[in-house]
Amino acid sequence: MKSLIIIFAAALILAFGGTAQAVVTYVTVDDTASQDVLKLPEMVDELGNGFPPGELIMSYDKGPTQYRPCLQNEDSTAIPNIVVSMTNMTGLNWADVWYVADAPDTGLTNDDGFINGGLAFKIDSVGLNKPLIMESIAYNDIFEVGETWEFVIQDYTNIFGLPASAFGSIGVGVVSGGEPIMSSGSIIAIPAPGAILLGSLGIGLVGWLRRRRTL
Fold first, then answer.
1. Per residue in 169-214, pLDDT tens?
2. Can you give the pTM of this predicted structure?
3. How far apart are CA 105 and CA 185, in angstroms?
4. In the beta sheet, which residues pair with residue 83?
5. Which run of H or of E encompasses 2?
6. Strand partners, 86
């Protein structure tokens, strides 16, 4: 029995070890220009290319599309709508995911408002703004472990000519760090409740095993 507990604890440590290197950021929200409400907490995780294991995603541009995620906003025929593909390499499920443009470098027209001064929208398939067009595992608006999502940025522009999928620098909106070649936007997210609970159980179990060793 003891060996099974130790194995389970080790598995939890491996599964959630990346969270110790979390790229956590504080954000402020302005809903004045919103189509859908930008409801998110003050503290979120930032995901990106080249990030620590607990926040690692792989992303690339799939090219232009005729799909309009937000019919209420004008869609210019002269500016392409870009499909972005991203794969969850974090080892965690994410219940809520948002895209935030680097400000003032990146423009778009399917925004729900501003996060840290950058045009932003929730990546989902509900409401007036529906940028999420594909989930590779299940259509449930949960960014699951190993899953690939495709979403659309309407009228995407970047003054440096960067791809829409360039999520390489730490920082969100106007506080995005690094050189311009690193990032055109950010992905921020909140872990799914089940992932938080399982991680807490793992930490508690490790603490219990340590206490037993001292008895």
1. 999 999 987 777 789 999 999 999 964 444 444 445 545 455 555 5
2. 0.81
3. 9
4. 63, 152
5. helix 2-16
6. 59, 149
